[in-house]
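Justification of resources, computational component.

The compute hours requested in this renewal are based largely on the per-chain cost of generating structure records like the one below. Each record pairs the submitted sequence with a full structure-token output. That output is archived, and it is also reused by downstream analysis tasks.
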Amino acid sequence: MSGQGVANLINFFTLVILSLYAWYTRKIMRSTADLVEGNSLPCVVIVQGANHLGDVGIEQNFKLRNLGAGPALNVSWKFEKGATRLANSLAPDEEVPIGVGAKDFINNGNRITCQFQSLSQTRYVSETKLIGDASIHTFHLEHEFRKLTN
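The structure output for this chain reads:
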């Protein structure tokens, strides 16, 4: 084999090794980004607040709560049958009342959808369903949480 052939062979193997190195580096970068996202993941859901005396007896107030480890940005929520409402941002463990009672839940389809973003601008959605009979306060809330894909 000539000197030029040996040089070409060395260049080829160098290219293969650098390509593998770049691929592994990208894989490590993605894993690190996923780990950071997981450690600062927001999770906004609807929770039950304190009971209060309403027009028709005792009513349940509902709140938005960030159960996650990171802040939730650009938070919005809406009933299954209704317009989107904004709630700005929520810090971890922060909750804000949304002015909704059980009868509002029932009259608007028994479901509230929340959308929000993490610090990395990844978008998430959570759906909260009211299950049972809220008129006699025998109900519970079910939550679904997922990442939105673009």
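The first strand starts at residue 44 and ends at 54. The CA atoms of residues 115 and 125 lie 4 Å apart.
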